[in-house]
Design brief:
Distance between the termini: 16 Å
Bound molecules: dicarbonimidic diamide
Number of helices: 8
Strand content: 15-25%
CATH class: Alpha Beta
CATH topology: Rossmann fold
Number of strands: 11
CATH architecture: 3-Layer(aba) Sandwich
């Protein structure tokens, strides 16, 4: 199978496009828009909006070139039976997971806030993995979906850099996937955490994976 080389740090990375997936992590209204889970935890959600355009371009290129695309959404069942108390008991009591908010019940599946932002909405045929935790492999069938397709490398985009993107990259790394993170396709409520999280991925010879930019991925996948 033809190899495609993506310019990245700490070094260029060669992947087989047929064995590469674009993984879009939690690009949901609950994290990117006012009134959702991110804001109820005291964050300035406007810090995340810059990811939408580069993610949109990457998603469009992936669809054009036939790259496998998977989306994830963080959220819980309406009865919150899959939400640990240790997670629910965060933030102001009136604004916790399951509480009513301007976009419906906070971080609950099926509510308006749980949806992926319209610019990055999944298309038919693109699996959407609902996850109760930070990592996309925890308590989901993501690994089964990727193994069934023979996927070996992941281009990981989404929010937030140091929480769900990082946790997913770590989980994927332990499962043998090469993870490539375009820096402008991920963001944090804390710019300094974003920078350090990316450095942690590429440090020590790429201990968790590679970092790059959406332009480099676009140049490589054509
Ligand atoms: C958070 C996420 N930050 N998707 N979730 O709680 O990063």
């Amino acid at each position: 199978m033809p190899l495609c080389t993506i310019e990245a740090e700490p070094e260029p990375v060669a992947v087989e496009l047929e064995r590469t997936a674009l993984v879009m992590i939690d690009l949901q209204r609950d994290f990117l828009e006012p009134g959702g889970f991110g804001e109820t935890l005291g964050n300035d959600v406007s810090r995340l909006s810059a990811v939408i355009e580069p993610c949109r371009r990457l998603l469009a290129a992936a669809r054009r070139t036939g790259l496998f695309v998977v989306h994830t959404r963080e959220g819980h069942r309406p009865d919150t039976s899959d939400a640990f108390r240790a997670k629910v008991e965060r933030g102001a009591p009136a604004l916790r997971i399951g509480a009513p908010g301007p976009m419906g019940r906070i971080l609950i599946r099926g509510e308006p806030g749980h949806a992926i932002v319209p610019e990055l909405a999944p298309e038919p045929g693109e699996p959407v993995v609902d996850k109760p935790g930070k990592g996309a492999f925890y308590a989901t069938d993501l690994e089964l979906i990727l193994r069934t397709r023979g996927i070996e490398a992941l281009i990981v985009c989404g929010v937030t850099t140091e929480v769900c993107v990082h946790t997913t990259v770590r989980e994927a790394n332990d499962r043998g996937y090469r993870c490539i993170v375009p820096a402008d396709c991920t963001a944090s409520y804390f710019p300094e955490f974003h920078e350090v999280a990316l450095r942690m991925i590429r440090a020590q010879g790429g201990i968790f994976g590679w970092t790059t930019s959406s332009d480099e991925v676009l140049a490589a996948i054509g």
